[in-house]
Amino acid sequence: MALGTGYDQQGCYLARALEVVGERWTLLILRDCFYGVRRFTDLRDHLDISRAVLTARLDGLVGDGVLTRESVDGHPEYVLTEAGRALWPVVFSLSKWGEQHVAGGHPARVFSHADCGTDLDALGRCPACSTVPGPEDLVVRPGPGVNPLRREDRVARALEQPHRLLTPLSVAAAP
Fold this sequence. Notes:
The chain is α+β, with helices and mostly antiparallel strands. 37% of the residues lie in helices and 14% in strands. The protein has helices at 13-21, 24-35, 40-47, 51-63, 82-85, 88-101, 154-158; strands at residues 67-72, 75-80, 109-113, 138-142, 163-164. The strands form 2 sheets. A 3-stranded antiparallel beta sheet has the order 3-4-5, with no helix packed on it. β1 and β2 form a beta hairpin. The longest helix has 14 residues, at 88-101.
């Protein structure tokens, strides 16, 4: 459940930011949007989220200017705005924190710099280029090892192959 909205007397931007992105489904929706998932049904199927919750979260993210809703071939698609793309360091850092501090039993995703192919370090830097590439300059792929939690939905199957972030994920062609 999201925090209350009584922050006028606190002067706390963290509290206000949590009102927008502090609910767990919201960060998972954003993660998938960075992966290139844009359609409602693909988000719903990959996240195992109810239609009502996903609708509420997407409406909130659109209303807060984190996503835009665009019509593509008669279907609504959700695309990260500049404000949404600015959340990449948060999503990346939380994922890396989870790798270090939370038991998972599955391989981590690996992010590499598209320009040179070098894997990022834990702080999101490219060791070869000495830069911190933005999400548009990253490729994600599954880490090494067997995944006992392997999913069978179309998004999960498509993400078994390297994929450039923010590029629409082709789930129809997923193997």
